[in-house]
Amino acid sequence: MRKQNAEFKTAFTSEAESDLKNTDYFGFVELDDFACYVMADGIDDQTDAMSAKLAVSAVVSAFSEGPSMKKRTLNVCLKAANKALLQAKSKRKLKASVLIVLTNYVKLRYGQAGNIRFHLYRNGFLTCQSIDQSLTADLVKEERVEQDKVSIHEERNNLYAYLGQDKDFHPYISKKIKLTNADALALYTRGIWEHIDEGELKDAFADATDDPEKTVAEIEELLLSRQPENLSKYTFAAIFVNKVFTDPNRKRKIRRALMTAIPILILAITLTILLAIRYNKKLEGIRRMEQWYEDTIEYIQTDNYIRAEECCREAEKEAGKLKNEKMQQELDRLLKLIETVLEADELLNNKEYAEAQRAFQNAANRSRYVDNLGLDYIKDRQVLTANYLSVYDFISLGDALALNLQYDKAEEMYLEAKLLAGKIYFDEGRMAAIDALDRLYGAQKAEKAAADEEMQKQVTQEASAANHVALGDESFAQGDYESAKVYYATALEKYRELDDNIQKETVEEKLKSVKNKLAANAEKEKEAEGYMAKAEEALAAGDLVAAKLYYLLAKDIYASLKEDEKVAEVERKIEALDISQPEKGEKEEEKEKEEGEKENQVQLNVIFGEGAPVSGNGITSKNELTGKIAE
After folding, report:
1. Which residues contact 133 (CB under 8 A, 6 or more apart)?
2. Do 294 and 157 belong together in one domain?
3. Smaller CB count within 10 Å for the chain: N or C?
4. Is residue 573 scored above 70 in pLDDT?
5. Long-range contacts of 124-133 (CB under 8 A, 24+ apart)
6. Does 401 have pLDDT greater than 90?
């Protein structure tokens, strides 16, 4: 019925090559409701090859078994043609390009494998065209080859889809295309498009009437008039759609369809609304769940685990309502992490540092199951807890050192604890360290007081001993050896009490020197007493000069010994001796003087020996003593 109420006219031409070999083939079948037009181009280069004919026959046969213009039908026809070439008994493998057009006289659909071309002209304009399945066509898409160079490009026949492929056979199938009255369809092989460009084809169809024979003849005449040297086989078919089928029951069908569809549509709309409400509600639940989840993550990242716990529980409720098991598992891991951190923080706040340290380690382990979320905070708290423990460890170590009287090292431990507590703002640990330092300093102060008292006592004794040594030195320097002896003896006793062997040995040496001096002085005094005795003897014998001489010798010794009283006593005796001598004349005095000097010299020689020095400290020579006597 459709075919009778539509007008589709078909005309075609197909010619062999110069060697009379034609491997093109065109065929069509027009049924009441559907029509099939198929063109094949053999590309196996065999004179006896029937690839194109086999392909067309297979397509027509497959179409006739189930006429339709569905995509599935077109796919069945293409596969049937491909199978026919693969299973054909031939010396060589058969290959062909194919183009199939299916129509229901209202719309059309085409399928293609190769480089046979399809054009749809409407009102003189090209409105639809196929694309070659070749390497050249791909290069045109990539703008590596110009469109007007396709007909001469070396890769135009290098196909990636064609009949005869045993693997990766992927033909192209178009969508449905609606037809209108006066549409014109053109199907042609490479023998046409290699020598006639698309503009010339367009002009031919723009001037066409309702008879396709005329248009086909014009195209063939145009081709042959050019007399191309390399003209190969060619096939050209034109299908004029002078009238498309119009369904007289279309309105009634539409009305019946609407009457059937309206209740269904109402039900569908109602279900859609209900489903939309439910879906929107679900989306809102998902949005809330994701927002709570994101808030949980954000609060963990900002170390606010109390708020993180609240958000995580809310997200868990929403995930339970949505029955989202994956999110429930994720939230459960997050919640366990949060609870562990909160527990560790509580232990830390309660000063249970060892337990807090174990809890933070547990939290660090749980963090690995949530992509190490919150791990920085956990590690910081672990370090802080370890520092708290270190503060008390330092204090405990300091206490142990203080008990062993190692106060310097104990002080170092307490100061280390104080410094560490200050760095981590641990006020309690800092005060504990300060208290420990106060106890240490108190104990040190008591010991220092006792030590200072002992030291003061020792210093006093040392000062007293040093003072006696100084007094002894002063007396020794003044020749007061008796006083020096007393001072040195006192100092020696004090140094013995102080157990100062060095000073003791020094003072003993000084005492030894004093004793030596005293012994020497005793000898001198004995010598002086001898001179005094000789002076008395000389005085008794009336030898005043000798007496004075001996007095002077004794005086010098007493002077060297610093015995002032005896010096004064000797001086009084000499003065008395001088007074007792009578005054004489000047000449007599000089004579006596000369005689006296001679006698004195004789006596000095007797006493000292010729050139010998005087033994006393005050007189060093006979001349000096003679001078004194003369005075």
Report:
1. 112, 113, 114, 115, 159, 160, 161, 162, 171, 172
2. no
3. C
4. yes
5. 124/202, 124/205, 124/206, 125/202, 126/198, 126/202, 128/177, 130/99, 130/172, 130/174, 131/172, 132/156, 132/159, 133/159, 133/160, 133/161, 133/162, 133/171, 133/172
6. no
The predicted structure's pLDDT at residue 610: 44
Segment 327-353 mean pLDDT: 91
Within 10 angstroms of residue 346's Cβ, the number of other Cβ atoms is 13
User: Residue 606 — pLDDT band, cuts 50, 70, 90?
Assistant: very low
Closest alpha carbon to 552 in 594, 480, 614: 614
Q: Decide if 461 is inside a domain.
A: yes
117 in a domain, yes or no? yes
Confidence class for position 618, pLDDT limits 50, 70, 90: very low
CB-facing half-sphere around the CA of 322: CA atoms within 13 A: 23
| Tens digit of each residue's pLDDT (9 = 90 or more) over 212-244 | 999 999 999 999 988 887 788 899 999 999 999
- From 373, 399, 414, the end of a domain falls on 373
DSSP string, 257-307: HHHHHHHHHHHHHHHHHHHHHHHHHHHHHHHHHHHHHHHHHHHHHTT-HHH
- The mean per-residue pLDDT over the stretch 82-91 comes to 88
Domain count, the chain: 5
Domain membership flag for residue 263: no
Read off the CATH number of the domain in which 49 is found.
3.60.40.10
Residue 298: per-residue pLDDT: 92
Q: Does 117 share its domain with 229?
A: yes
Do residue 322 and residue 212 come from a single domain?
no
Q: Are residues 286 and 160 in the same domain?
A: no
Last residue of a domain, one of 486, 510, 534: 510
Which residue range is the domain that position 149 belongs to? 3-243
Give me the residues paired with residue 111 across strands: 100, 173
**Does any domain span residue 275?**
no
Transcribe 9-48 into DSSP letters. Answer: EEEEEEE--TTS---EEEEEEE-SS-EEEEEEEE-S--TT
Phi and psi at residue 178, to the nearest 5° = -75, 135
- Predicted TM-score (pTM) of this structure: 0.46
